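Example record

The entry below shows one chain as it appears in the dataset: sequence first, then structure tokens.
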Amino acid sequence: MPEEAITTLRAELDRFERAEEGFALLEVFLEVARPQLGAVLLDPVGLRLPEGMTDDRALVQELLEEIEREPRGSGRVVERAFDMDDEQARWDYVRLAYSSNQATVWSARHRTTYFEAAGPHKATYWLPDSLKAE
């Protein structure tokens, strides 16, 4: 069986006029891809607000501070998972993905990465043709 074609789309926030446009793209992607999604994770250590964020800045700062106050385990980095069927969890993930050192959205079988944000200036979508059609 031939491998499915995949389109790569760079999605750093500085590619958008406003950070909120990048958030909107990720929100729509998560909504469309939700039936095919597997793990949706991020590294909660060292979270920081993206420079271009405007509208939700105070809300996201509160969320970051809340996470920072949570007790840490044995010093290990523990990825945080998000339930994409929960609207608030999707909202949180979208903003935190661009605030974290590493955020990833996997396909259901963990064979394909659909989205990854790494550090403040790198974000990429990998869109299989079957998902683009949806």
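Notes for this example: The longest strand covers residues 37-42. Helices lie at 19-33, 57-69, 87-97, 129-133.
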